[in-house]
Structures are given as structure tokens and as C-alpha cells.
Amino acid sequence: MNDDVRNIVLGVVAAAISAALGWLARTYLWKRRLRRKQAFFGLPDNSESLLVVNREAGGPELTVMRFDVFALLELAALIKDCGAHAQVVAHDAAQQGFGERTEFCVGGPSSNRRMAAHLHSLLPGIQVNTDAEPGPDRGAFQIGSERYLLEPGKGEYVILARLIAGQERGTRPVFLFCGQRAITNQAATRYLARNHERLARKHGGNSFVLLLKVVNSHAYGPDVVELVADVTPAAQTPLPTPVPARNSHRAS
Question: Where are the transmembrane segments (predicted)?
Fold first, then answer.
């Protein structure tokens, strides 16, 4: 074997080794990124999860609004990327506890009984105005001492929460997407899909409750979303019980 052939062989071998090392490095990084994503969502390989769907407010029991369907599609893609499976369950048929399977619950308490139960049990510091009659307070959020009114098409709020009930190892999270309108639910799921790595770095495996604002949805749809605040402490602290007004009239 002359020097030219030897150099060619050595070059091919070096290129093959470099390609193999590069492939191994990319595979390692991809798997590490996948494991972190699975840990954040509580979705290991071949695990089961729940997609709890609401109904259109004022509509038939199993009618889901178009934007809520889009939200479910966003979540289904996340679940598939984790190598997990999803079971779609109607809000009034999910009669089970939480923590055994990751749950994604979509819709406000007026159209989703499961969401109403979660807010009552896990986030007692949040109240949502569910009045059916039109009015300035319809759909308003009360979070601690702050109140957030609905401005349809201009400024709409949605709660994005990742909650862990209990400290037992292996407890799966519950994700809540509680918006003032259906389009805000889709905005929250899209925000989660785009920012889950940053949220995982910031919050780790802990619970968090974020208040998001969807800006000018008439023009931008669910794409322009602002983080208003991390409201975790206020959302987990029960609201004070209103003191009934005393009758100041004296008997004559």
C-alpha cells in the first residue's frame, strides 16, 4: 500500500469516525431533550394521558368549539412527540382523581365541570364570573385582590397552570387551560408548546400558575400572547370570605 492509498484510507476512516461521533452526540442530545420534555409533561414512553374536553357554553353537551378543537390538536402533537398516548374524555365523564395520569383540561368552569372542580380544589384563590347574562363583569377573573375584565377581541385573559397534587414520587401533573374565550384556550396551549423548555428550566417539577393576555385576537388570532404575571401564590391562597353587611337599623 503506497502513501497515497494509505492517506485516502485514513481519511475515510477519520471521516467515518467523525460522522459516527457526531451522530452519537446528536442522538444523546436529542434523547436528553426528549427526557426533559417527558419529565416536564409527566409523559414517559407509552404512558397514558387524558384530554378533558369541554362543551360550547350554552350549546349541546358534547359540542366543542372550533378553537377548543385546535387547542386539543396542539396538545395531541405534544403528547405524540413524547411517545405517549391520549384518551379524550368529556368533562362530565372524567370521574376520577388526579396524579395517576397526566391530564390536560381545556375550557372555563362554565363549560367544563372538571375545570370548575380543579379551580375549587387546587386554586381557591381564583374565581371566574360565570354569569350567563351579558354584563361588564361577565367572564372576569378574580385572582387574589386583582380583577381582570374581558374585552372581546381586544384583550382577553387565560390561565395556564401546571399543578402537582401531593409530593409522592411518580405523581403526574395536571395542566389547566382556563380562558375567558375559546380562542384563549388555544393561545395558552400554543404558548405552552413554544415555551415548555423555558418553563421547565424556571419551575422544574414544581407547580405554577401563569396569567396570560391574548392581544387583539380579532386581528392576530391566538398568536400574540403576553405573560401578565406568575400568580401562583395568589391562586393557591383561598380568597377571604366576604363579611355579610350588618344591619345598622335599631329597633324602635
Answer: 6-29
- Residue 135's φ and ψ, nearest 5 degrees, are 175, 165
Alpha carbon separation from 187 to 56, 130, 141, 149, 213 (Å, rounded): 17, 21, 17, 18, 9
Contact (Cβ atoms closer than 8 angstroms) between residue 185 and residue 106: yes
Domain span holding position 128: 41-236
The pTM of this model reads: 0.82
9 part of a folded domain? no
Let me know if residue 33 belongs to a domain: no
Interval 93-122: pLDDT, tens: 666 777 788 999 999 898 888 999 999 999
Q: How far is CA 97 from the centre of its chain?
A: 18
Q: Considering the domain boundaries, does residue 248 fall inside one? A: no
Judge whether 122 lies within some domain: yes
Tally of domains within the chain: 1
